[in-house]
Amino acid sequence: MSRLAIIGGTGLTQLAELTIKKYETITTPYGEPSADLIIGELNGAEVIFLARHGNPHSIPPHKINYCANIWALKALGVENIIAVAAVGGITQDMAPAHIAIPDQIIDYSYGRKHTFFEDENDPVRHIDFSYPYSQTLRSRLIHVAKTVGISISPIATYGCTQGPRLETAAEITRMERDGCDIVGMTGMPEAALARELGLNYATVGVVANWAAGKTEGEITMVEIEQNLHKGMANTAELLKAFAFSC
Ligand code: HPA
Questions:
Q1: Cα(183) to centroid of ligand 1, in Å?
Q2: What are the structural domains of the chain?
Q3: Cα angle vertex 226, ends 243, 184, to 5°?
Q4: Is 206 in the pocket of ligand 1 (CB under 6 A)?
Q5: CB 179 within 8 A of CB 103
Q6: Is pLDDT larger for residue 62 or for residue 217?
């Protein structure tokens, strides 16, 4: 199996199950990645780990240098990326601590550097993005989840908002009408940049909270952290089993 990277999001700044072999500091034409890349071993397989929000967790979603992160992974020879992302749950099955493997994205973010293809000396390029996630990686994740008995939703549409604030109830109602099942702040442009560099990319969405307006009361960071703690235990099991299958 080709080189695998895991991008850890909120709730997964470190992967405790990873045996760290070395750290790589990579400089890219786009600046610094969020953190040093960790080369390690997960359940017998080599894995490169990158903390999307930095280590410690300090970079908000709209300030992440997505280009540097994806470029650095490519520079280390990565071909497959599993991106772990905390999300809010919009539709019925997406309860806190649940895991979804999305198959579609709607991008509501703005003002982020979202392409490698904008050098005026290069020919104009348009990647195909009809199916934004790697079907091969998704199928493997879904298969592995079934094998180890972790309940997941194998289909979901991920809506990417700008953050860092959470959404209004009306925004979530609109997103639900649009077909979104989960909402997060980091899925784009990460997925598109991976596609531009020819990397296979799939997301494990871990539900941290019901999205705005879906329950009574405020959404608090305490609630998000508690749910993520539960969801990340299953996510770590899934990642371990996935790495073993590589
Ligand atoms: N909205 C956007 N991003 C999120 C949420 C949410 O409710 N929860 C975790 N990440």
A1: 6
A2: 4-116+129-245 (3.40.50.1580)
A3: 65
A4: no
A5: no
A6: 62
List the structure tokens of 13.
Answer: 């700044």
The whole-angstrom separation of Cα 205 and Cα 233 is 13
Q: Is the CB of 232 under 6 A from ligand 1?
A: no
Asked if the model's pLDDT at residue 17 lies above 80, the reply is yes
| Nearest atom in ligand 1 to 184's CA | 3
Output the CA–CA distances (angstroms, integers) from residue 46 to 107, 202, 242, in the order listed.
32, 18, 12
205 CA distance to ligand 1 middle (Å)? 10
Confidence of residue 197 (pLDDT cuts 50, 70, 90): very high
The residue among 102, 236, 216 whose CA lies nearest residue 160 is: 102
CB count within 10 Å of CB 123 equals: 6
Q: Name the residue type at position 229.
A: H
For the beta carbon of residue 177, count every other beta carbon within 10 angstroms.
8
How many other C-beta atoms lie within 10 A of the C-beta of residue 183? 30
Please write the tens of the pLDDT for every residue from 85-126. Answer: 999 999 999 999 999 999 999 999 999 999 999 988 888 889
pTM of the model: 0.96
